[in-house]
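Journal club side-thread
Mid-discussion, someone asked how the predicted structure for our own chain would compare to the paper's figures. Pasting it here so we can look after the session.
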Amino acid sequence: MPSDTSASCTLPTAPPAPGYRGLLRNREFAGLYASSTLTAAAGTLSGFALGTLVSRQTHSPFLTAVSMYGATFATVLGALTLMSVADGNRPRRTLVALQCVSLLGAAAQAVPGLPLAARFGLLLVLGFFQSLGTGTRMGLLAEVVPVSAYALARSLINITSGGMAVLGYALGAVLLRFLSPQGVFVAATALTGAALVIVAATVRERSIRLTRRPGLRRTWTTNRELFSQAGQRALLLNLWVPNGLVVGCEALFISYDPQHAGAFLAAGSAGMLLGDLTVGRLLTAGQRRRCAFGLRLLLAVPYLLFAAHPPVLVAAAAVFLAGAGFAATLPLQEQLLELTPDPVRGQVQGVESAGRMTWQGIGAALAGGAAQHLAPGTAITAVAAASVAITVLSRPLVVRARPVPVSGR
């Protein structure tokens, strides 16, 4: 049976990766990890509150889905214009500045009576800066941990972010029984502020970066080199599209079953936590790559059950299993990192993250648009089927990929 990795893609010789405890003894990684976790928790609370607010005011599945994931549309603008700042020679200062912007945006969402148009505008602005922040954070991550520990570090961040999502959705559902959505926005603002303080206190400045000034031209040059390689295109396709369509399924939970949407979202996050823990901690790099195709199928196949409108417990179990499939991103991200020169790691990882988030927004919009004309359960099934089809049809591209790294000059 062919695997999703070429024979020429071998792992570099490296010392054994530390365990999770060893990673957390690294002060800078601990800071990046904690700030990423708090940012994820804040985003979960804010997204759930905004989705609920929009649903109550508009009763529109499309607008509800877009409100929960609309910020992802703007991440592509960051990837296409200023993502090279992620590899600037002052990454700590850049990350702190971007966290300040996120704090201001979170606080603005908490303003009572803010028109929905203004809230959607805030989503786009925050999505743009969020993409730059993610690229900068992931570029720093590749510098503060050894290459052999990168997948483990990403899995720990993903695991905890998944755990925060479980708690965030559960807490959001509880808080909304006692508070207005504005009160939940205030909690999200506090978490964002804590993430800012931690980054400022723990991450040191680094200078092993580009000697050329980052900007629009530099961003376009690196992106052009990245997308000119068939191998990178195949990896990015599989990192972006199947995931984004499945997020579209998740975006319909409120419309599908408002009473149990929080439970479904929590189940998906719990599955993601388990998948990242298993794939990142217990499997070797070779085993991760051999499992990548099966995990991408697991990501969408369980959602096909929604065609039969299953009982709540069965639907939650399906969502849990599908969540584990998100661990397919780990081996693909690991392979992409191996193919990326040090000077442009931040930008390439930022492009990968921005594209993945943008496709989450596209998936939410497609699913929401389908739900305007179909029942939410039928729309979920259709979007999941599209994800499965793309995964199967794109597999030969990954199997035959012989990627060549971008130059980084």
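Post-session note: The first helix runs from residue 20 to 24.
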